[in-house]
Amino acid sequence: MPEPSVFSRIITGEIEAERVFEDEHCIVIRDRAPKAPTHLLIIPRKPLINLLDAGADDKPLLGHLLWVASEMGRRMGLDGYRLVMNNGRDAGQTVFHMHIHLLANRKMREQDLAD
């Protein structure tokens, strides 16, 4: 059985992280190596590797993650933000537990994609 991902270990409390939101479906933490002044990670509790691992039964969870992203934007009073999800090693994914990056408070350029 593979080792739990760093995000799985954060979800269980084995590793500390600055949590800004959580519910029964996901947690939101501040990125430890931010690429923008506001850089949050929206992480489902379900240990999906990435979107390629999600099935039809995960549609409610995927919608919930996007709703949480919009809710974080509202709560933080963000005028605009970028959502990034890397799917697979070739796309720059380095933690193999699905997550969405929310980046804000810096003018974004196309080449500023999160890893």
Poorly predicted regions are none
Give the helix tally: 2
How many strands appear in the DSSP assignment?
5
Strand % is 15-25%
CATH architecture classification name: 2-Layer Sandwich
Mean pLDDT: 92
CATH superfamily: HIT-like
Distance between the termini: 26 Å
Shape: globular
The largest β sheet comes out as: 5 strands, antiparallel
**CATH class type:** Alpha Beta
Rg over C-alpha atoms, rounded to the nearest angstrom: 14 Å
Helix content: 10-25%
Taken together, the total number of domains comes to 1
Class inferred from helices and paired strands: alpha+beta
Q: Remind me, CATH topology?
A: HIT family, subunit A
Element order, helices and strands? Answer: HEEEHEE
Strand order of the largest sheet: 1-2-3-5-4
How would you characterize this protein structure?
- There is one protein chain.
- The protein is α+β, with helices and mostly antiparallel strands and 115 residues long.
- It has one domain (6-104): HIT-like (HIT family, subunit A), CATH 3.30.428.10.
- It has two helices and five strands.
- The protein has helices spanning 6-11, 59-75, and strands at residues 19-22, 26-30, 38-44, 81-84, 100-104.
- A five-stranded antiparallel β-sheet has the order 1-2-3-5-4, with helices on one face.
- A hairpin with a 3-residue loop joins strand 1 and strand 2 (26-30).
- The protein is globular and about 40 Å long.
- The mean pLDDT is 92.
